[in-house]
Amino acid sequence: MNEFPIYPYKGVLAENFPFKISVCEGTAVNTVLHAHEHLQLSYVMTGSCLHYTVGKEFNLTKGDLLSIPPGLEHRLSNREEWPIQLIQIDFMPHCISENMKDLSHMHTFMDFAYIQPFISEENVVPKLHFAAHKQIQIEALIGSLRT
User: Fold this and answer.
1) Residue 101 pLDDT > 70, yes or no?
2) I need a surface site. Which of 42, 87, 105, 142 has the fewest CB within 10 A?
3) Which residue numbers delimit the AraC-type arabinose-binding/dimerisation domain (predicted)?
4) Cα(41)–Cα(39) distance, integer angstroms
5) What DSSP line would sit under 37-84, residue for residue?
6) How far apart are CA 119 and CA 1, in angstroms?
7) Which of 68, 3, 5, 4 is nearest to 38 (CA)?
8) pTM here?
9) Superfamily of segment(s) 6-95+111-146
10) Does residue 73 contact residue 32 with C-beta atoms inside 8 Å?
11) For residues 80 and 27, is the Cβ–Cβ distance under 8 A?
């Protein structure tokens, strides 16, 4: 039995359209160790926070993108001196490919091939950092998705 809650996707996403974009700011970040049934991508628009996952601590800053696949336990910790603004994109994996509709055969972090950029041969690196010129493009794209 897990020692952390696993949030069902139906509590976060609509069943007929399992995709959601939200803004998470400051103390609204989830500081409780948890996992969820859906995939979550988070992009740091401003500020900084700590992300705990796979037994490690990662510092997140503006321009970082993190990927949390279904079932991976994680939590965030606020850094009061640098208030965070995260853009969270939550969705079910079958939004990427219908082949991912049945997740029952996927049990580990490595089962989710679409997160390949976050995996190195040595370990899991659940974040990517984008250069400033790419951040401008990403933030424009996020802005267009939010309107």
Assistant:
1) no
2) 105
3) 33-108
4) 7
5) SSEEEEEEEESEEEEEETTEEEEEETTEEEEE-TT--EEEEE-TTS--
6) 27
7) 68
8) 0.79
9) Regulatory protein AraC (2.60.120.280)
10) no
11) no
Structure tokens, 120 = 């190195």
Tokens of 125: 């690196």
Integer Cα distance of 119 and 31 in angstroms: 24
Q: What confidence tens digit (pLDDT) does each residue in 103-128 have?
A: 545 555 445 555 555 544 445 556 78
Q: What is the mean pLDDT of residues 47-59?
A: 89
Q: How many CB atoms lie within 10 A of CB 89?
A: 18
**Which residues, listed in sequence order, are joined to residue 68 by a DSSP beta bridge?**
40
CA distance 46 to 63: 8
Q: How many helices (H) and strands (E) does the chain have?
A: 1, 10
